[in-house]
């Protein structure tokens, strides 16, 4: 059986297939139908591209440049495996007059390297670092389609949706975080029609698997150099990583550490009492007992008193997102945001922090309506009823599905004129 993810079956004539695909592409752009022998994966991608409003004569936009691109590269997990990509694919790309490209989970190219003359040709279609090559931006292409479907895929010649990309052939495979399964991006090889071979797809898939294996290995000294870390976003109970230990915390201990991590100067007993408890009848004795239990969990020397404070700097995921927001790096801030801060917490100070962070992210989204970022937000549990963001998404990506969802949500919540989103739970 022919592999549907490989562009050309054995024995196929590449030149003849190019001619057939050009006719099929013209038929689709004119009539909306996909004739044979267009592969199913390509036909579905063409339909998604059309629904997203991609124009066949369009071009990729460069969205990250200069310091923004440098910051995104430095903070991205795939930076740790770029030496591996260069070792395994770099020489192949350069010797074969191809390009090695790596994109993030939203299809933004972070690295594009390879043969000098091929790089010059690629610049004419904005296949450059910082450009968005998601399927929703430039239609069918290997890195964009690989992150869209979560599978390794080849795209051959006129299978590309945008005409100026059709002289090229590419093969890409997604790369996932081996610990969480989260999509990190894709690794791609781009060049001429000679890449339309099963070996190139198998090769890039093997490179992606090697990268995942490398990412799963511990990096000596990484946590020690950075100090303790606190993960409290998108989870009801925080996790503290310190000195090789991974400590799952109770809800109350999670709240205490989140507050103390953000206040290096510490909090008095009265301040902490007001920050943690809605019930004013809770006594200082209750708080002292809770702190004594937390001190036993943490071990000696980490929690001091008078005022209550952490004796070492603890880097929280909350602080990471806030720092990126302050720097204006909205994309990287959202990439580091797995969900609301301790969503089940009712501690007054935690609720304020949670709302402040979510409101800041929403405001940044609405100020620069990026369709992919907006879609990520409304399809996450915390954003699925966010009318304002749905409205912004429907404006920049007016698909039937988006318009229908917005209409239903406005009717359900009584918007416009009603609440923009449900109250913070």
UniProtKB/TrEMBL annotation:
InterPro entries: GAF, GAF-like_dom_sf, OmpR/PhoB-type_DNA-bd. It comes from the Bacteria. It holds the Pfam family GAF. The keyword Transmembrane helix does not apply. The keyword Membrane does not apply. Transmembrane segments: none annotated. This is Transcriptional regulator. It comes from Streptomyces caelestis. The lineage of its organism: Bacteria, Bacillati, Actinomycetota, Actinomycetes, Kitasatosporales.
């Amino acid at each position: 059986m022919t592999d549907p993810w490989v562009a050309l079956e054995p024995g196929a004539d590449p030149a003849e297939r190019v001619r057939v695909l050009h006719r099929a592409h013209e038929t689709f752009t004119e009539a909306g139908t996909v004739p044979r022998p267009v592969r199913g994966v390509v036909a579905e991608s063409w339909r998604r591209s059309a629904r997203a409003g991609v124009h066949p004569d369009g071009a990729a936009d460069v969205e990250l440049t200069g310091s923004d691109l440098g910051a995104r590269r430095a903070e991205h997990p795939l930076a740790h495996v770029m030496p591996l990509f260069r070792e395994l694919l770099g020489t192949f790309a350069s010797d074969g007059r191809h390009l090695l490209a790596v994109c993030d989970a939203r299809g933004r190219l972070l690295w594009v390297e390879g043969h000098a003359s091929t790089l010059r040709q690629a610049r004419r279609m904005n296949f450059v670092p910082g450009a968005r090559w998601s399927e929703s931006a430039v239609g069918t292409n290997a890195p964009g389609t690989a992150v869209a479907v979560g599978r390794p895929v080849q795209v051959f010649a006129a299978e590309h949706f945008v005409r100026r990309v059709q002289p090229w052939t590419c093969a890409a495979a997604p790369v996932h975080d081996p610990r969480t399964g989260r999509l990190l991006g894709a690794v791609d090889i781009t060049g001429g029609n000679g890449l339309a071979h099963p070996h190139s797809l198998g090769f890039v898939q093997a490179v992606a698997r090697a990268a995942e294996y490398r990412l799963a290995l511990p990096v000596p000294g990484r946590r020690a150099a950075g100090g303790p870390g606190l993960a409290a976003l998108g989870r009801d109970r925080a996790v503290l990583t310190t000195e090789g230990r991974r400590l799952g915390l109770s809800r109350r201990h999670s709240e205490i550490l989140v507050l103390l991590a953000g206040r290096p100067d510490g909090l008095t007993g009265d301040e902490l009492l007001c920050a943690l408890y809605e019930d004013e009848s809770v006594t200082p004795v209750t708080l002292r007992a809770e702190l004594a239990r937390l001190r036993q969990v943490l071990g000696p020397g980490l929690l001091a008193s008078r005022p209550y404070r952490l004796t070492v700097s603890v880097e929280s995921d909350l602080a990471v997102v806030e720092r990126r927001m302050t720097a204006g790096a909205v994309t990287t801030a959202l990439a580091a945001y797995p969900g609301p801060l301790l969503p089940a917490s009712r501690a007054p100070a935690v609720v304020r922090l949670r709302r402040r962070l979510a409101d800041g992210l929403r405001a940044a989204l609405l100020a620069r309506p990026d369709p992919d970022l907006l879609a990520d937000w409304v399809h996450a549990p915390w954003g699925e009823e966010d009318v304002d963001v749905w409205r912004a998404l429907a404006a920049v990506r007016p698909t039937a599905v988006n318009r229908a969802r917005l209409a239903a949500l406005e009717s359900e919540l009584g918007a416009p004129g009603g609440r923009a989103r449900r109250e913070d739970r």
